[in-house]
Specification:
Strand content: under 5%
Radius of gyration: 38 Å
Mean pLDDT: 93
Structural class: mainly alpha
Helix content: over 70%
Largest sheet: none
Shape: rod-shaped
Number of strands: 0
Number of helices: 19
Order of helices and strands: HHHHHHHHHHHHHHHHHHH
Distance between the termini: 118 Å
């Protein structure tokens, strides 16, 4: 027992000695930092300090304070004063670099960011560890000013993020954007004062695009929901998100993203509807006749919003391609109700009738019963006649482009016995 007590006593003496040495070292470091700060401040006030000297001396003082803080040897009652010195050694470098930024002059963007982090941490430390005293000789106004300055620094993190992005340091940029977006949580001492110059969704928008430029796709994905809330850039954000899946070589994820996006807001995303329909049509063609990716998507979309023109046209196209001319006709006609000067839809309406007529006409010669054959021939002529008004509507939409409609009209007029009109079409051809 006596041995254990003896060892415990020795350990206690060693710990006390180590702590005393640590405190002595920290006191010396803080004093040296204060001396450097006083000297450079005096030269700045006398306007004899060079920019290089300011940067060098302030970095030196900051390093000393950081060592002292990290070592843990500063008395609790002296922490506020240490952080005050720390903060003061960040102000002049910060202001110098801001001046260069405003004047579009080169400066050390990496140091701007590290100095900014030192400044806000120092201001926070000073505010947290300084006992407020009131009255004429008190520090109440000084701490209030420190809080105001700390609150303003949120905007500087946005600048730092932009500087880092410009330099291609995307990880640092995203770190800086994250601090800005979560500034009130990181610095709760000024949560009631910290009002950034731009809203969080706009910061998230900048961060999202920085992540894309840096090909940091996981971080980009994490920012998307917030970034897309920035209305002014929402379309660009959606486009970049979509293209990023293709950059990653994941066309399935690209298609699923566009599907979810367009089904949630069909009218707001018609360009993406067109892209996805084209994709599904190609996939159906590549995969063969048993593939049917496009139609279920279009039907689901039109159930939500029947007046999406490109979706109606895609449905009509697929039906026409499958030779379901009656159903295709109805779908193309719906397109003309949505857009009454839509040349393609009017032309395709006529073509549905025209193709039905050609298909029926091909069977006439094989019908042995003369009465039935005659009926089929009359029905063929009727279908050619039914096609005429739709081709004429197409003509109204593109009057100066007869190559688009004159051939079919000539055929229809010829079959229905309207020779003069057929000759007119001949001239146009």
């Amino acid at each position: 027992m006596a041995l254990f007590l003896s060892v415990g006593s020795i350990m206690g003496q060693v710990d006390k000695a180590a702590l005393k040495a640590l405190q002595k070292e920290a006191k010396a470091q803080v004093a040296e930092a204060q001396k450097i700060n006083d000297a450079i401040t005096a030269k700045i006030n006398e306007k004899t300090a060079t920019e290089q000297e300011i940067m060098t001396e302030c970095k030196k003082a900051q390093a000393l304070i950081r060592k002292a803080l990290k070592g843990g040897g500063i008395d609790a009652g002296k922490l506020g004063e240490a952080y005050k010195i720390y903060a003061e050694t960040t102000f002049q470098p910060h202001n110098l670099m801001l001046h260069h930024a405003v004047n579009k002059e080169p400066f050390d963007t990496a140091f701007f960011y590290s100095n900014l982090k030192n400044m806000t941490d120092a201001l926070q430390g000073e505010v947290k560890n300084t006992k407020i005293t009131k009255g004429e000789a008190g520090n109440e106004n000084q701490i209030k000013n420190r809080k105001d300055l700390l609150a303003q620094c949120g905007d500087y993190y946005i600048y730092a993020a932009q500087f880092n992005s410009d330099m291609g340091k995307y990880d640092k940029a995203l770190e800086s954007f994250d601090i800005a977006m979560n500034y009130a949580q990181k610095y709760p001492e000024v949560a009631d004062k910290a009002q950034l110059r731009i809203p969080n969704e706009q910061i998230a928008y900048y961060a999202f695009h920085a992540a894309h430029e840096g090909k940091l796709y996981d971080k980009m994905d994490a920012l998307y929901d917030q970034a897309v809330q920035f209305a002014e850039g929402a379309l660009g954000t959606k486009q970049v998100r979509a293209s990023s899946f293709l950059e990653r070589g994941d066309s399935t994820a690209w298609a699923n993203y566009l599907r979810d996006l367009t089904l949630s807001e069909p009218k707001a995303n018609e360009d993406f509807v067109q892209m996805l329909i084209s994709y599904y049509l190609k996939k159906d063609k590549d995969l063969g006749p048993d593939s049917n990716l496009m139609m279920p998507y279009v039907e689901e979309l039109l159930a939500k919003e029947p007046n999406i023109l490109i979706a109606q046209y895609g449905k009509a196209y697929k039906l026409f391609d499958s030779e379901k001319y009656d159903e295709a006709f109805d779908a193309y006609l719906k397109c003309t109700e949505i857009k009454d000067d839509y040349y393609d839809a009017w032309y395709q309406c006529g073509l549905c009738k025209y193709r039905k007529a050609l298909a029926l006409n091909a069977t006439v010669s094989s019908i042995k019963n003369q009465t039935e054959a005659k009926k089929a021939l009359e029905k063929t002529k009727a279908l050619f006649g039914e096609a005429i008004p739709y081709f004429e509507k197409a003509r109204e939409c593109a009057p100066d482009e007869p190559m688009k409609w004159a051939f079919e009209l000539r055929q229809c007029y010829s079959v229905t016995g309207q020779a003069a009109k057929a000759a007119e079409m001949d001239k146009l051809l």
